[in-house]
Amino acid sequence: MRKFIVRQPVKDNLGSTFGYEILFHVENEHDELMKDYAAADSISSFLMQNSEKISSDEKVFMTFTPNLLFKNTPKMFQPDDLIIQIDDSIIIHPLASTIIKRYLEEGYKFCINDFQFSPRYFSFLEYVDYLKIDAKLVTSETSMNNLLRLGSGFNKKCIITGIDDENLYAKVKEFPADYYQGSYIAEAMATKTNKTEFMQSNFFQLVVAVTKDEPDLDEIEEIITRDATLTYAILKMVNSVHFALRNRTASVKQAITILGLNQLKQWVYLLSFEQKGEISASSEEILKISFQRANFCLELYKYIKDLNITKSDIYLLGMFSTIDALVDAPVKEVINEIPISEEVKRAIVSKEGRCGTLLKLVISYEKADWKNITVYAQELNVPMDMLAQIYFDCVERVNEVWKNIVSQTSDFK
Hints:
It is a single chain. The protein is α/β, with parallel strands linked by helices. The chain has 2 domains: 2-188, EAL domain (TIM Barrel); 190-413, Orthogonal Bundle (Hypothetical protein af1432). The protein has 19 helices and 8 strands. The chain has helices spanning 32-54, 66-70, 88-91, 96-105, 119-122, 141-153, 166-172, 185-188, 200-210, 217-225, 228-238, 252-272, 281-301, 311-319, 331-335, 342-350, 353-366, 370-380, 387-412; strands at residues 2-11, 17-27, 59-63, 82-86, 109-112, 130-134, 157-161, 179-181. The protein has an 8-stranded mixed beta barrel, surrounded by 5 helices. Helix 2 (66-70) links the parallel strand 3 and strand 4 (82-86). Helix 1 (32-54) runs parallel beside helix 19. The longest helix has 26 residues, at 387-412.
């Protein structure tokens, strides 16, 4: 039995991340009843080992089957961290109100999935704080407005979901919902800038690192390579005509060496003048996605036998896969300024080749595209039974790095 588990951001209309929905899928040969029990056991077991990796400062939305609810699986999360989603499998259950009241008494909050005009949903409004409205199921603007107005009238927070492509996003972005969700949302709500935009707290750590009496080059490299825009900026500069390199480089460590400490400090000093306050929340989310993809690509690389490119290029494959959302320039133009391998360039620009398949696997996993996850993983001979664990190990690393950035920055203030 294979299980795939992924998290998807829930954002407000400014692009800030309010929380993440944990989506899961289990492939099973059993009949539906056995599949439900198997899924409950599988998901419960996985969450027992990975609940800390899933958690962050944001809310966790998760749909629980009746079996998971009765197994007390939600209690692996603190009430303040979790929003329990319910769908028809819960609503039609004879013990639904009893089990929901029990969780409410312990401080948990609830959300109705795919909320519609129906008596069976209205009877549960008293128990929930959030309503999810699937953009693909609501066929008219009038129906969408009526559902949102109903939710607001009952003091419920409304989340428009299923925004998986540009056309749907264009239709729903004007609706006065509280939050939005879908595979298209994470990058679509980022604000492009005329020049690269760095995460200020991470940049502040770089300033501290380069101004030490004895700067640690490994520390400087680590700080730069967790920020896609800093990585892009230093590689672009080092490979510019000014340095007239015989051999261009895609290595951040080599770029630091070429610059030398004096020029590195000058570069950081000049960049500090480009900083204009805090980075937007949406752009910070993109930086986290790029860092997540870079780590995910690097971990999956270990299982792919016939990729004749370096680990550095694989890391940059994931890191620069979001660069078009951070820099207001065509992807091809941006990528051509960096001397990464042609295979990686083709993968980023047009998703071609084996590297393109790897990038498609990583993005499909983000989007919870269960069918294509299987197709691309099999094509690359990546063990599917390990994907969920690899993914959440990378999520944990990203969470730890971002918490460390914030905490260390606070210590210096």
